[in-house]
């Protein structure tokens, strides 16, 4: 089959169908009758299922949250998992986010890159195969979710009712292919034990605030101190500290209180060492002062276990995997008040081979001794498909037949939709040089790249679901 030629024949219709999907505002909304995550996402799901019906596929809706478009029969199920919900458009668009426009060969609309464009590309790959009257040897399902951007209720509901595909891919990330994703955890380390001072301390830490999200390195930190004597000395030492550390900071005196501010450098939580954690910096300064006992216990704990703990060593949870890399630890939230004590909000990502639960338990025992407990643990295990699987080989090969790029399949520290399928990999649809406009204003996708992705998916599905190449291996 000439994949390029085949896709080209469908170009106009593909764009038209995509524009219809992009015109639906499918931001998560209030629960309505039959629409658990709002009317918009449900409308987008129904729109896709209607295309499936129009083109004579078998379709199914599951709880108004997800559905599939199916071709072929047989025991082996091949799943392609896309989503039609989008994040809120935000401000600053040059055109209406839900009225797709074409400029310089690019379609501009919310969701065109994440994930309506790639989902439609995968749909057209199925449609073209069907209309070429090919026989699907695998039961091939385009599974459509409507809650990927929030709580993944869609895949939860879907897999409660429907069989897990034996294998598949999610067109919701990058080419060539992502076969491993680190385990993702968040937890809080909270101070419990209040230690009273025997006499009034000269310096009291009233408040410390740094960070807003687990998965970001805090770029700002502020602390408020009450100082009875020698305020000037503390200020001088703060200024010296800033110079020595070469970081930006500020101070302000307010009614006997000293407010300190640090500006670090924000970064993504999967690469904490790329940033400058403003919370760490302010804690390092506080560690040079003689504070009240409670704050001292908080700051000492930070010094032992938190500050510059980027790879889990201080938790005794460091681990390295050849393919998936190191444990990464981001302390995205650091808070302290004199009433409630301190809390560290941690985002820890880890490669296969680490027993996270056991590691955390052992760390908690140590933390307990210093008056800290571990709370609010969220844990998703690493996702990994063997790189030598025929699935990975055929998909990568399908990509390389259309793109002059030898980049090897890779693993990432984040999570993609693929992890909801037992043997699922992420496969496109962003190319190496595609600007990532997902979740941003003026989200866009080149029409050429939309067509190219469709060609790649067409070859992949042709080889796997029609020619059954994986079975022959
Ligand atoms: Zn997505």
UniProtKB/TrEMBL annotation:
Belongs to the peptidase M20A family. Its EC number is 3.4.13.-. This is Dipeptidase PepV. The keyword Hydrolase applies. GO terms for molecular function: dipeptidase activity. Residues 259-369 form the Peptidase M20 dimerisation domain. The keyword Hydrolase applies. Its cofactor is Zn(2+). Keywords: Dipeptidase, Hydrolase, Metal-binding, Metalloprotease, Protease, Zinc. Gene3D superfamilies: 3.30.70.360, Zn peptidases (3.40.630.10). It holds the Pfam family M20_dimer. The gene is pepV.
């Amino acid at each position: 089959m000439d994949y390029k030629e085949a896709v080209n024949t469908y170009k106009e219709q593909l764009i038209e169908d995509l524009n219809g999907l992009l015109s639906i505002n499918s931001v998560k909304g209030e629960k309505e009758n039959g629409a658990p995550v709002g009317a918009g996402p449900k409308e987008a799901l129904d729109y896709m299922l209607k295309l499936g019906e129009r083109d004579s596929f078998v379709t199914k809706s599951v709880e108004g949250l997800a559905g599939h478009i199916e071709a072929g029969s047989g025991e082996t199920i091949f799943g392609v998992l896309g989503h039609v919900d989008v994040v809120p458009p935000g401000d600053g668009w040059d055109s209406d986010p839900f009225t797709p426009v074409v400029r310089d060969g690019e379609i501009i609309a919310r969701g065109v890159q994440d994930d309506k464009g790639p989902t439609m590309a995968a749909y057209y790959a199925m449609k073209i195969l069907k209309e070429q009257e090919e026989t699907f040897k695998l039961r091939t399902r385009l599974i459509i979710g409507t809650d990927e951007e929030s709580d993944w209720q869609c895949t939860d509901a879907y897999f409660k009712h429907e069989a897990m595909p034996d294998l598949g891919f999610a067109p919701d990330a990058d080419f060539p292919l992502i076969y491993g994703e680190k385990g993702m955890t968040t937890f809080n380390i909270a101070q419990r034990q209040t230690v009273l001072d025997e006499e009034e301390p000269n310096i009291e830490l009233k408040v410390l605030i740094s960070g807003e999200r687990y998965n970001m390195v805090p770029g700002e930190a502020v602390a408020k101190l009450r100082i009875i004597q020698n305020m000037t000395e503390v200020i001088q030492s703060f200024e010296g500290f800033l110079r020595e550390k070469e970081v930006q900071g500020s101070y302000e005196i307010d009614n006997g209180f000293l407010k300190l501010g640090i500006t670090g450098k924000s970064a993504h939580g999967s690469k904490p060492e790329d940033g400058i954690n403003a919370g760490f910096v302010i804690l390092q300064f506080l560690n040079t002062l003689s504070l009240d006992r409670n704050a001292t216990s908080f700051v000492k704990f930070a010094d032992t276990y938190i500050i510059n703990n980027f790879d889990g060593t201080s938790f005794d949870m460091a681990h390295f995997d050849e393919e998936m890399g190191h444990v990464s630890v981001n302390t995205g939230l650091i808070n302290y008040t004199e009433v409630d004590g301190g809390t560290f909000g941690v985002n820890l990502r880890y490669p296969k081979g680490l027993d996270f639960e056991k590691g955390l338990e052992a760390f908690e025992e140590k933390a307990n001794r210093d008056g800290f407990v571990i709370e609010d643990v969220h844990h998703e295990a690493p996702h990994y498909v063997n790189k030598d699987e025929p699935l990975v080989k055929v998909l990568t090969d399908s990509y390389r037949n259309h793109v002059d790029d030898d980049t090897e399949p890779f693993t990432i520290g984040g999570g993609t939709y693929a992890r909801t399928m037992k043997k699922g990999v992420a496969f496109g649809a962003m190319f190496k040089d595609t600007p990532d406009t997902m979740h941003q204003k003026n989200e866009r996708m080149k029409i050429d790249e939309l067509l190219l992705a469709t060609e790649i998916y067409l070859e992949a599905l042709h080889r796997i679901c029609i020619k059954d190449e994986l079975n022959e291996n």
